[in-house]
Fold this sequence. Notes:
Chain B: Residues 2-319 form the Aminotransferase class V domain. The structure holds 2 protein chains of 2 kinds. By secondary structure, chain A is mainly alpha-helical.
Amino acid sequence: MAASSRAQVLRLYRAMLRESQRFTAYGYRTYAIRRIRDAFRENKHLKDSEEIQTLVNKARTNLEIIHRQVTIGQLYSTQKLVIESLENRDNLII
Amino acid sequence: MDVQATTPLDPRVLDCMLPYLMHYYGNPHSRTHAYGWESESAMERARQQVASLIGADPREIFFTSGATESNNLAIKGVARFYKSRKKHIITTQTEHKCVLDSCRYLETEGFRVTYLPVKSNGLIDLKELENALQPDTSLVSIMTVNNEIGVKQPISDIGQICSSRKVFFHTDAAQAVGKIPMDVNDMKIDLMSISGHKIYGPKGVGAIYVRRRPRVRLEPLQSGGGQERGMRSGTVPTPLAVGLGAACEVSQQEMEYDYKRISVLADRLVTKIMTEIPDVVMNGDPEHHYPGCINLSFAYVEGESLLMALKDVALSSGRFGIGRFTTEEEVDYTVQKCIQHVKRLREMSPLWEMVQDGVDLKSIKWTQH
């Protein structure tokens, strides 16, 4: 199998972010998006194709995990947290 | 913001657990069929994951119902096994209730217990520990990271002292495992308690590490079918064990990232509060401290009033907990509300008024009612 190209990695990155946006739980959603961004950013300089492929495979596994957990979260969703409601957004002066 | 009380399940952990709650429901001790075999192999995989996080051998890890059971097992188990020749135990005054209660119970069985005090920064005095050791001391039990203040005890030094005096060293590492690097060999730890729900794993499961070389023996608490090499009878709850293992593995991978992030958020919280309002004290030694547990005292404000005012933030008694899933927004919101309410409560406080007027509170003669 050919090593993943830059385009493939970017596609995977966008797919992971898109899927993570669908988490209904505030903490999971913010964590997933943050973690994915930081992880891809940390590894963007890598040149060794084997290393890249290992990470890409790990990312694909994580994407599947995110997809399953997003679905479960939607089945058992609850109300929004205080931190998520619009009125409080305006109150954050700092 | 109360992650010291409990943590949410990491989605990666739940994902590992679900198959064992649904399709793979075998008893790991059933030796005769595939349901049992696959359940057993999952349990052993989890055992390896826990061991790997603390630098132990999987044969030294035993699953329990939580850190409370592990603490009970360690303290009562070791004390009772060696009771014919050793009757003394040392612990600290700031241990978790289950440790203190176990020691109190042992006192009724005829053991002597020394409860070491802590210095004003929350750390124990190593010289006092050395002086407290007696020829018939079987065990020293000191927690790694305190769940109220967040101080980190000098575990390696304590381990060194205990090993040189041939006394077993137990540590309740529930708040430390998976958050700071722990190695049972580097730190010369003989027994360790681990809690699932403090490291983004499920509630109802924990583990105890018991050193094999040199061998630590203990009298089991729970009798029965001899599971877990006789250390802890009872069917091991495979889904929970798998959850604990997964939580440990995730923590091992994420430790550095989480620690950096939590330190930044902790600095942000403390700095913002302290620059905005005066007379705030951070409890515990600032250097030997785990950043995810911040304990603040606000002078001239009653604790309960502040907790009740901060009604939409989950807090516990002056303790701010920051974890893997805590966001900057949550920290900012908590800081803003805290500052707002401390100012408001101080306005209502007669003590604050007197201080503002330059009265020295120590010079006041309070009248009796």
